[in-house]
Amino acid sequence: MWVRLGVFVLWLIHFLPFRVIVFIGNGLGSLLYLLAADRRRVGAINIKLCFPEMSDKARKTLMRDHFRMFARSLIERSILWWSKPERISSLIRVEGVEHFDAIKGQSAILLTPHFVGMDAGGQWIAQHTDTVCMYANQKNIYLTDLLLKKRARFRNQYLYSRQQGLRPIIKGMRSGMPFIYPPDQDQGVKDGAFIPFFGVPAATMTSVSRIAQMTGAKVVPSVTRVLPGGEGYVLTFYPAWENYPSGDDMLDAQRMNEFIECRVREMPEQYFWLHKRFKTRPQGEERFY
Fold first, then answer.
1. How large is the average pLDDT for residues 230-238?
2. Are 240 and 178 in contact (CB under 8 A)?
3. Residue 116 has what pLDDT?
4. CA angle 124, 127, 128 (to 5 degrees)
5. Alpha carbons 215 and 106: distance in angstroms, whole number
6. If phi over 0 gives left and psi between -120 and 50 gives alpha, with beta otherwise, what is residue 237?
7. Does the pTM of the predicted model rise above 0.85?
8. Distances 53 to 44, 276, 288 between C-alpha atoms, Å
C-alpha cells in the first residue's frame, strides 16, 4: 500500500517544473540525512575509508551533499518514468557522443558506474539504441515490475535478472546491442577478486574483461553528472579503452577501479556511498560495517 502511494505521489510530481522538482529532492535529502541513521553510518564509513585525509567536518558536509543528490535522483525519476522523451532529452547535454555513435550496431559494453545520475543517462541511451542489461529483483514485486516497465519504455530494452546469468546478455551483445553494465558494487568474490579501490581491497567483478574477450566488445565508459539547480545533466561518453582486455583480468579490473576513482574525485558527492561497497573482506580481516 505505502509503496503504491509513494509511486502515485511520484507520478504527481512529474507534472511540476524541473526547478521545483529539484527543490523537493534537496529538501527530501536533508530530511533523509536526519532520519536514515543506518544508511548515514554506511556512507560515513565508506567516505572515511576512501578519503582518510579529509577532515571530519568535510566528510560530514560531503555526506549531507550526497543525501541531497541521492534524493534528487529518486524524485527526478518521476520525469524519467512518465515525461515525454522530448522533456527528458531537453534536460541532458551529451559530451563525447562520437564515442557512443562509434559502437552502434557492434558488440560493446557501456560501463556505467554507480553515480546518482546514471538513470538519467540510461534513459537517454535507451532513446537512441536497443540495449541489454541486468537487474536485481526488489523485495517488493510491484516495485520490481514497475522498474522493469519504466526502464524499458523506449525502444527495445532487454533486461535480465542476475539469476538468468550471462547467456542472454552475450546473445544480445553478439546481435549488436550494447550491454549497459554497472560494475562497481560488492557482489562477493566468487566471480571476482579483491582489487584496491581508493587503496582499500574491494570485492570487484573481473567479468568485464572476460565478456569483452568472449564477444570482441569495445568498452566505452559513460558517466552522468547531475548539474546544480535546474540545469539538468551532462552525460559523458569516454573513448573506448585501448589494449583492453589485456589478457590479465586482475590488471583490467584495477584499470576499471582506477577510472572510477578518478570520476569520484571529480564529483564525490554524486557517487553512491550508501551501498556497502566494502562488505566482503579478505579472510581474517575485520568487517567494516
1. 96
2. no
3. 97
4. 95
5. 10
6. beta
7. yes
8. 14, 21, 18
Per-residue pLDDT of 71-123, as tens digits, reads 999 999 999 999 999 999 999 999 999 999 999 888 999 999 999 999 999 99
Q: What secondary structure, in 3-state letters, does the chain show? A: CHHHHHHHHHHHHCCCCHHHHHHHHHHHHHHHHHHCHHHHHHHHHHHHHHCCCCCHHHHHHHHHHHHHHHHHHHHCHHHHHHCCHHHHHHCEEEECHHHHHCCCCCCEEEECCCECCHHHHHHHHHHHCCEEEEECCCCCHHHHHHHHHHHCCCCCEEEEEHHHCCHHHHHHHHCCCCEEECCCCCCCCCCEEEEEECCEEEEEECHHHHHHHHHCCEEEEEEEEECCCCCCEEEEECCCCCCCCCCCHHHHHHHHHHHHHHHHHHCHHHECCCCCCCCCCCCCCCCCC
How do residues 150-195 score in pLDDT, each as one tens digit? 888 887 788 888 888 889 999 999 999 999 999 999 988 888 899 9
**Separation of alpha carbons 52 and 124, rounded Å:** 36
- Bridge partner residues of 108 (DSSP): 218
Cβ atoms of 229 and 17 closer than 8 Å: no
pLDDT at 145: 87
- Residue 138 is predicted with a pLDDT of 75
Looking up cell 553528472 gives 225
